[in-house]
Design goal:
144 residues; alpha/beta; 5-stranded mixed sheet; globular
Length: 144
C-alpha cells in the first residue's frame, strides 16, 4: 500500500438530506468535523473540498442493516459512491457506519456547550459521525 504522506483523508456520512463531513490532518492522526453539506449540492462541494485540501482518499460510511446485509439506504450510498468516484477520480473506501451516530451523539452530549446545539443543528451530528468514522479508520491504519 502506498501511503500518501501529508495528504488528508475525507470522511462522509451520507444521508438523504445532508452529508456529514470530516477531514484528517495531513499526518493522518486526527479527524476534525466540518460543516455538513446539503445533499443536493454535495458532489460539487466534495469535489472542491478534495481539491482545496489535496485529499488522497475518501472514506464513506456504509449503512449496513443490523444483520450486516445491504438495505435500501446502502444501495443509495453505493450509487452516490459510484458517481463521486467518477467526478473526483479519488479512491473511495467504505467503512461500516453502524453505531457511529450513537457514538457521535454520546461525544456531543459530553462536550460542554454542544448539548443544546444538537437539536438546532442536525448537521452537527452528521459531521460528528463522519469524524467518528474517520478517527476509527485513522487509528486502524496507524497500527499497521
Amino acid at each position: 500500500m502506498i501511503r500518501h504522506l501529508n495528504q488528508p483523508i475525507i470522511a462522509l456520512d451520507v444521508g438523504d438530506k445532508r452529508i456529514g463531513v470530516a477531514i484528517s490532518d495531513p499526518t493522518r492522526t486526527l479527524a476534525t468535523p466540518r460543516s455538513a453539506i446539503p445533499r443536493q449540492r454535495a458532489e460539487s462541494q466534495i469535489l472542491k473540498l478534495s481539491h482545496d485540501e489535496n485529499a488522497s482518499l475518501i472514506i464513506v460510511g456504509m449503512p449496513f442493516l443490523a444483520s450486516g446485509c445491504i438495505g435500501t439506504q446502502a444501495d443509495k450510498t453505493q450509487q452516490f459512491i459510484a458517481h463521486l468516484t467518477e467526478i473526483t477520480g479519488l479512491k473511495i473506501e467504505t467503512v461500516d457506519e453502524r453505531l457511529s451516530t450513537v457514538e457521535a451523539r454520546k461525544r456531543l452530549h459530553e462536550s460542554p456547550g454542544r448539548k443544546n446545539r444538537i437539536k438546532k443543528d442536525k448537521g452537527l451530528v452528521d459531521s460528528a459521525s463522519a469524524a467518528v468514522l474517520l478517527q476509527t479508520y485513522l487509528d486502524q491504519i496507524g497500527t499497521r
